[in-house]
Amino acid sequence: MTIQARIGEITERITRRSHDERSRYLDRIDAAGEAAAKMPRKGLGCANQAHAFAGCAPADKALLHGGRAPNIGIVTAYNDMLSAHQPYERFPELIREAARAAGGTAQVAGGVPAMCDGVTQGETGMELSLFSRDVIALGTAVALSHQTFDAAVYLGICDKIVPGLVMGALSFGHLPAVFIPAGPMTSGLPNEDKAKIRQLHAEGKVGREALLEAEAKAYHGPGTCTFYGTANTNQMLMEIMGLHLPGVSFINPNTPLRDAVTREATRRALEITALGNDYTPIGRVLDERAFVNGIVGLHATGGSTNHTIHLVAMAAVAGIRLTWDDFAALAEITPLLARIYPNGRADVNHFHAAGGMGLLIRELLEAGLLHEDVRTIHGHGLRGYLTEPGLAEDGRVIWRDGPARSGDPAILRGVAEPFQATGGLRVLDGNIGRAVIKTSAVAAERHVIEAPARVFHSQEALQAAFKAGQLTGDFIAVVRFQGPKANGMPELHKLMPPLGVLQDRGQRVALVTDGRLSGASGKVPSAIHVTPEAADGGWIARIRDGDIIRVDAVQGHLQALVDAAEWQAREPVQADLAASHVGIGRELFSAFRASVGRADAGAAIFG
To answer: Enzyme class, one word (predicted)?
Structure first.
């Protein structure tokens, strides 16, 4: 298929902007690849090798001793506290067995932390969430630093975990990388019903016991949460960017097909090492075209706003400079093709059944909205992702053509009849700074809100004002000092029930914050990731109670309607952030807060 001219122009712009950094990155990983080829494992010192395989099974030890068979490093984010990651407990042995059957070996190279944002929402631990991404990247680098692997497979799904694993993998860009998902839990209490119970609880109309019962029915077993938040957006990205096998993102855990595709992913990882004829290093897979494909997928599915930060940070490790302007330009030409909660009633299981990733990619390819001629771990360009896996009688994976049309147009549609003509994200600019707004779940009549500011320095302060009945009339809640330098940029998901209640009562409300929101947030218009942040002297720190604020997702404006001379003369408000810098491990992250970059640069501690 011919790529649309505008897609080509945006890709070329990114390529030109990134040329010098990308060239240096490619030179570095090419040199690392050449060095590894000249000095494979047997070139390591004898003591080094002996340490590396001392604990292996005898047959594996023999292969590693010979130094000729490929060896996979497993980097795992397994723990049994995350429902999404609990199925990974079985994966290392599945992978080792599959590697042996294919004539190779596999070892757990290391584990990385995996925190659950669902557990920490509204709690102190959420202030470590974003920084955990960079810790995961560092942990991945440590795991691979033994230099005894010919490829790596990555076991991770959730919010900061996949971006962190990708960043760490790209730092070893000469190694092939295969990401292996575990799949979503089966459908439970519908997400819309869960959201209603949350709002009723916020209003004091149902008690904690009813709320807990509803939450337990929604999050009820092993697997990823079924709404289309950051975790499931991660899975979409890994597939459309070529790091998953085709069609594997949303197969439920602990099923014969899930185990079969895990074994197939292992076999494929062994095939694409430098020891074979299909060498596919991750640093070459994730190029400018792959990132453009990822952003198009993000817009087409109404994915998580967190990826306006994560994709920028991931690309930077590969020497690619993405900007929010790239997101905005691609949103203008990408239609919204999926309705998955919070953008609709369906969950990811319904999306998968309606045609899933194969149909989505088919539609975008046919419309010229994706680069087809990319490298992928599957080895057939992006057109190879129009297939989906099935089980043969002997338990092996067979590839078959994916669906040519949607099984449910209320969930997944073609480009000819999109849910809306443009993607669900918009970049806002104005005298308050730059921000991101997700419009795909916001009613059209709420895309522009102009109202007086009500200023808060924590989500707890807003919740207290709500419970006291003080949030009357139309207003824009300004919740500041929530950026990465201030307190690690937590998600402010607990703002949504009270603001949703007020909106449902007929008030015109919106949110402006330098913090983040969950990928599951939806119907309240929210200008988030405001940068520069308040703690960095950003203009959001100059807003006063009563200032008229305009959030305009149609024209892309974020404006304080204050006299220009007065606005310039105002001093930014300061805040005492000491309480956010100690306890629950936060004192260990002072170096992160001091060195972290701006949200629009990826909010990373690197570079």
So the answer is: lyase
Give dist(CA 360, CA 363) in Å, integer: 5
Structural domain including 559 reads 425-601
Q: Is the pLDDT assigned to residue 41 strictly greater than 70? A: no
Q: 109: helix, coil or strand?
A: strand
Total domains in the chain come to 2
Which pLDDT belongs to residue 1?
Answer: 58
Last residue of a domain, one of 253, 269, 286: 286
Helix and strand counts by DSSP (H, E) for the chain: 22, 14
Residue 560 sits in a domain of what CATH number? 3.50.30.80
Does the annotation flag 116 for ligand binding? no
How large is the average pLDDT for residues 299-304? 94
Query: What 3-state class would DSSP assign to 185?
Result: coil
In a domain, 462, yes or no: yes
Report the amino acid identity of residue 33.
G
The pLDDT value recorded for residue 592 is 97
C-alpha span between 532 and 484 (Å, rounded): 10
In this predicted structure, which of 45-59, 243-257, 535-549 has the lowest mean pLDDT? 45-59
- The answer to whether 225 is annotated as binding is yes
Place 81 in a pLDDT band, splitting at 50, 70 and 90.
Answer: very high
Does the global pTM surpass 0.90?
A: yes
Amino acid 329: pLDDT: 95
Tokens of 349: 């299981």
Residues whose CB falls within 8 Å of the CB of residue 112, separated by 6 or more in sequence, listed in order: 75, 76, 77, 135, 136, 139, 140, 143, 156, 161, 164, 165, 168
**Cis upstream peptide for 87 (omega within 30°):** no
Tokens of 542: 């100059």
Q: 247, 265, 286: which is the final residue of a domain?
A: 286
Domain of residue 32, CATH code:
3.40.50
Q: How far apart are CA 61 and CA 66, in angstroms?
A: 9
How many whole angstroms separate alpha carbon 157 and alpha carbon 365? 26
Whether residue 42 has pLDDT greater than 80 = no
Closest by CA position to 355, among listed 320, 379, 330, 386:
386
How are beta strands 151-155 and 177-179 bridged, if at all? parallel
Considering the domain boundaries, does residue 363 fall inside one? no
Residues 156-179, mean pLDDT to the nearest whole number: 97
At which residue do the structure tokens 């709002």 appear? Answer: 199
Is the CB of residue 370 less than 8 Å from the CB of residue 293? yes
10 versus 493: which is more confidently predicted? Answer: 10
C-alpha–C-alpha distance, residues 296 and 519, integer Å: 17
